[in-house]
TrEMBL record:
Entries under Pfam families matching the protein: PHP, PHP_C
Classification of source organism: Bacteria, Bacillati, Bacillota, Clostridia, Lachnospirales
Protein name as catalogued: PHP domain-containing protein
InterPro entries named among the record's database cross-references: PHP_dom, PHP_domain, Pol/His_phosphatase_N, Pol/histidinol_Pase-like
Polymerase/histidinol phosphatase N-terminal domain mapped to chain residues: 3-70
Length: 219
């Protein structure tokens, strides 16, 4: 199944123009099996998202995009998170202490929000976002090469803030996932692959080929 693993809803991400109801509607239209709300430094939507998921029967998993001192990191499976910026390694350690999963968001985006070369020094990251629908293709391809070099899981996400970006990239999971417990188990098991939406359907990306410049895709 396909899950968009990095999305922003307007209640807690003030730079988003998306309501949860709209996100679910578009996700269903595109064939996503679930979505993840990863607001900026905030998990305040968790209770509402859980209620809406139960009401609609559409899985919604809430994580966080935390802006560490070295760059953005997506985390799932945590209850506690800092209320101020801290070093990336400290945040990763905090995630791990809670049994969570984390990956570097858009590590080579040219706005000082990615971990960039810090990827080589931090310890404990589970994955890298190698497809980000709001980041240049060149930056995503570089992330794909680093993921291979470092042996990290490869993730795909839209990083959507507007309707037209919902689901443009996603992550393929080999199993069906309905609950947060199943989601965490699948993340830790691995085997995910990035995917992109084109011509009405999702296409799984082979990371090695993409890191070398193929296929030529846009999002």
């Amino acid at each position: 199944m396909f899950i968009d693993t990095h999305m922003h809803e307007m209640i807690c991400s003030k730079d988003s123009f998306l309501k949860l109801e709209q996100m679910v509607e578009i996700a269903r239209e595109k064939g996503l099996g679930a979505i993840c709300i990863t607001d900026h430094d905030d998990m305040g939507l968790k209770e509402y998202a859980e209620e809406y998921a139960e009401k609609t029967g559409f899985p919604i998993f809430v994580g966080i995009e935390f802006f560490s001192l070295q760059g953005d990191i997506i985390a799932f499976g945590i209850e506690e998170y800092p209320d101020e910026r801290i070093p990336a390694q400290e945040f990763i350690d905090l995630v791990k202490s809670q049994g969570g999963f984390c990956f570097a968001a858009h590590p080579f985006r040219n706005n000082n929000r990615g971990l960039e070369e810090n990827l080589r020094t931090v310890r404990g990251l589970d994955g890298l976002e190698v497809l980000n629908g709001s980041t240049s293709v060149a930056a995503c391809q570089k992330a794909a090469r680093y993921a291979q070099e470092l042996g990290l899981c490869t993730m795909g996400s839209s990083d959507c803030h507007v309707p037209e970006k919902v689901g443009v990239c996603a992550t393929w999971f080999p199993e069906e996932i309905r609950t947060m417990e199943e989601f965490m188990k699948a993340l830790k098991k691995g085997g995910m692959k990035p995917a992109y939406y084109e011509d009405g359907s999702y296409h799984i990306l082979e990371v090695q080929e993409y890191g070398n410049g193929y296929p030529e895709i846009g999002f």
